[in-house]
Amino acid sequence: MIDIHSIKIPAVSPSLLAADPARLVLETKKAENAKCPLIHIDVMDGRFVENVSFGPSTVASLSREPGIIKDTHIMIEEPYRYAKEYVLSGADILTFHYEACLDIPLRFLTIQEILVNGGIPGISIKPETPVSVLKPFFSKVGLILVMSVEPGKGGQSFIEDSLKKIKNLKEMLYSLPKKERPLIEVDGGINEITGPKCLAAGADILVAGSYLYGHDDFALRVKRLLGEKI
Q: I want to staple 72 with a disulfide (CB 3.0 to 4.6 A). Which of 41, 84, 190, 212 is the partner?
C-alpha cells in the first residue's frame, strides 16, 4: 500500500476519460512525463451514472506501469461487491460514491474491503451532497473527492459552489492530526482558472481531463493548473 501522504501536493491527476482509449498506456506515460504523481481512472457502470467506461481489465493493464499511482474512481452501484476486484486489479486508491451505498454500514463495509485487500479507500460526493455527511469517515479514508460537476460525463462546466464545499471540508479536517487527514481531490470542469481557485480553497489534488488531453502543451497545462510560473 502506498503512503498517500508521501504524494507531493498540490498535484494533478489527469483523467484518462478524456484520453485516446486506444493508447491508454502512452497517455499514462504522458502524465508521468509531466511529473503527475497520479493518473485518474473513471469507472462507470451505466447504472449509478448513465455512461459506461473502464473496468477492472483497464486498471490491470495500467497496473503494469509502476511509476504512477492508479487513482481509481468507481461510479458504480453496490461498490462493496466490487472493491476487492478493483484493488487486486491494481487500483492504488479506490474511491467510491457515498450515494452508491444505502446506509452507513455498507459504506464502512466498502472501506474495509478496500483496506483488507491493500488499497487506499477514498469516498466521493455529488454536487448536491453536503460535506457534513462525511464526518464519520474522516479518519477511515485517505482521500475525499468533491465532484464539481455531476458525475458521469466529461467536459462539463465547473460548479462555483464547489469552492465553498472545499473550504468547509478543509476547515473540518483541521481537527485531525496531519498524518490522519484525508487529501482533498476535486473533479469536474478543472482548467487554468478553476484549478488555482480550488487549490486556494484547500484542495490538494486536481483531476483534469479535457483541459489536458488532446493538447500538445500537456506539461505546460499541468503547470498552469498548479498556478506555477511558466
A: 41
